[in-house]
Amino acid sequence: MALLHQPHDRLFKDSLKEKPIAVDFFKAHLPPQIFKRLDLSTLQLTDKSLLTPELKEIHSDIIYRCQFDGKEGYIPILFLFEHLSTAPEHTAFRLLQYVVTLMNDALKAGSQKLPLVLPLCIYHGEQSPFPQSTDIYDDFDDPDLACALVFKPFSLIDLTILSEETIRQHGVASLMEMLLKYTRERDFDRAVAQLKAGDTLSFTLTQTTEPYLQTVVRYALSSAWSEHQADKVLEVFYEALPDKRETIMSAAQQLIDSGIQQGMQASQAEVRQTAERKAKLRTAKTY
Questions:
Q1: Distance of CA 171 to CAs 127, 167, 174, 243, 245, Å?
Q2: Tell me: the pLDDT tens digits for 119-149?
Q3: Which of 151, 168, 227, 267 lies deepest, with the highest CB count within 10 Å?
């Protein structure tokens, strides 16, 4: 007699492809308060293949779609089968990956909202009971701390509503926040001048590295709305950090050179403006 390939997997998949079996499976294993909210008349087996982040297909996945409270949602039945005497570690995390994959697939398909995803697993390995935790928080070193911090609303620092006074209290991080806050301002050069007047420029850029100074200079010049405004911004840096003039000029020159390389298809007017900026830098270097 020929042996079936993956017989347990075949039994599981072929069984749950039968809708009456799937319905009774749901009824037996879903919480009653969830089961009664399903519109079973819309229950539909999908033909999608679920891939792990490593692009490996889950051979035992069954995914049903069903309306929940009158809304579209996925009800994936994920079969976790362990041939060995031990179950795989971090099972809850693996299931979380599959859940996120399904949610991402829904967004790619045009959904404006994330679907509900509920994994259900069958285990019949040699070791009994199932030896791994079903709680994702148990995969962390400190479950209580993880429960308090992880999978919560993310921390948002909304610079558009933070006051300058508040931002100035953020130490050397305040310069980055101020530049990002005012990058869309038409009078960006005035905002940079205020950073100089308040010692934010010198305070931060004398406590950080020269590569960071170059990053800040390039960002500030790139944020200027015009060539004239960029010249004003550059002058502010010269005045705030006179002993860093060479570094500031080097950063500006790198930005200009990068602009030339990217501007081979630019208009002749843009090329002339770049050349004029280089001439001004050479002139400043002689002082």
A1: 55, 8, 6, 22, 24
A2: 888 888 878 888 889 999 999 999 999 999 9
A3: 168
pLDDT at 173 > cutoff 90: yes
How many Cα atoms within 13 Å fall on the side-chain side of residue 80? 20
Q: What is the pLDDT of residue 281?
A: 60
Read off the tokens for 95: 């299931």
Which structure tokens are listed for 139? 């995969």
The closest of 93, 57, 48 to 75, measured between CA atoms, is 48
The reported pTM is: 0.74
Sign of torsion over alpha carbons 149, 153, 156, 162: negative
pLDDT above 50 (res 264) = no
Sheet hosting strand 74-78, strand order edge to edge? 38-45, 61-68, 74-78
- The three-class DSSP label of residue 150 is coil
Cα–Cα distance between 82 and 127 in angstroms, integer? 10
Give the number of residues written for the chain. 287
